[in-house]
Amino acid sequence: MAGAAFISLWLNVPNPKQSCGKPCGGFSRWGSGATAGRVACSSFSDQAASQPRSLRLLSQGCKIVGCGSALPTFTISNDDLAKYVDTSDEWISSRTGIRKRRIITGKETLNGLALEAAHKALEMAKVDPADVDLILVGSSTPDDLFGGGPQIQNALGCKHNPVAYDIRAGCSGFMLALVSAACHIRGGGFNNVVVIGADAISRFVNWDRRETCILFGDAAAAVLLQGCPSEEDGLLSFDLHSDGDGSRHITAPLSLRDTADDVAGRNESRINFPPKRTEYSTLNMNGNEVFKFVCRQVPPSVESALRKADLSTSDVDWLLLHQANQRIMDAVASRLEIPPEKVISNLANYGNTSAASIPLALDEAVRSGKIKAGDTIAAAGFGAGLTWGSAIIRWG
Ligand SMILES: CC(C)(COP(=O)(O)OP(=O)(O)OC[C@H]1O[C@@H](n2cnc3c(N)ncnc32)[C@H](O)[C@@H]1OP(=O)(O)O)[C@@H](O)C(=O)NCCC(=O)NCCS
């Protein structure tokens, strides 16, 4: 299956409107030097035309047909936080736009929230769990080190054991999972894919550090991406990047816990066995660097995705950015010359919910009637890795 999905990256023509200024073979991938890891549109059509490959793959489109979200019950406001760390509602709301956030407590689990969100997405899509072919979970804070996908699959009651796995990419997790889902569908083997963004960053926040603890909240949200004829395609284009050089700006590395003595090796050299028990340290972030990185990289990524869809910023009905900071969203919108009324924002209520933030904001906007059938959404995620990317979505 993975092979088929990869081939589709080269061959797909998901939408006749997509173009690179000349007839375009759709999405392509190349991977060396400075552009390693980039997925973009290029003119592979000539190459593709000369190779005998399955035309069946070319006719497959995909679209989001349902969404859903779930939140922990416990709310902590800025004023509440000010009782724990030296901060204030005035500082937090003016610097970030955040007023409160939800935190997982007690018996709540991330898998439980993800399950609820997936159920709601399937309900909206009117798709039975038995018809789900694949579940992708964008999450960096799963309940279990080995991820939550298969457990969510089991709890959803997917009778035919669809493939389920996790994608770990910080706040870009949903965007990468969405594009991966589209590749699986366009590859021809999958039809109904549940794409989940779920994170509980509260588990890795140092609650004594005011620079970071004020920013994050927990949540899960999901969409159902479904195969469709290419004329109805709803994922018009995408643009993905990563840059490991910037990884130092957002980290939660392993830290050693036990101080077991080194043991002598057979040749008298000192070796470290058994390995020391480890755990992840709390989140470290250079907020200023992250701020600059987003303002530098996200607007060109959105523009690139729009170009591949043969659209411009004036065609965008909604700018749906990862909900990290209102000032970041304002800066990106301003660089793209997209007016504030077209920017979807709900972070005042939930803070930065990492991989959940884009589908959570999408779900709220759809259910409130803000986003309507036919609307064009420019979505962009960014975060640890560093990773960032955009997708142009036609709703409904
Ligand atoms: C973290 C962030 C809100 C900090 O805002 P900022 O305006 O850049 O603030 P600074 O870091 O320059 O700090 C300014 C002052 O406020 C203080 N400060 C930091 N956090 C504070 C808080 N919660 N309450 C009160 N004061 C605080 C600092 O100590 C500093 O004090 P000083 O001037 O006496 O040294 C901002 O950089 C940001 O949002 N960055 C992006 C982070 C992000 O979105 N990450 C996730 C991406 S996926």
Automatic annotation (TrEMBL):
Pathway the protein contributes to: Lipid metabolism; fatty acid biosynthesis
Catalyzed reactions per annotation: malonyl-[ACP] + acetyl-CoA + H(+) = 3-oxobutanoyl-[ACP] + CO2 + CoA
Domain Beta-ketoacyl-[acyl-carrier-protein] synthase III N-terminal: 165-244
Entry's Gene Ontology BP terms: fatty acid biosynthetic process
InterPro entries: ACP_syn_III_C, ACP_syn_III_N, FabH, Thiolase-like
Superkingdom of this protein's organism: Eukaryota
Molecular function via GO: 3-oxoacyl-[acyl-carrier-protein] synthase activity; beta-ketoacyl-acyl-carrier-protein synthase III activity
Recorded family membership: Belongs to the thiolase-like superfamily. FabH family.
Full protein name: beta-ketoacyl-[acyl-carrier-protein] synthase III
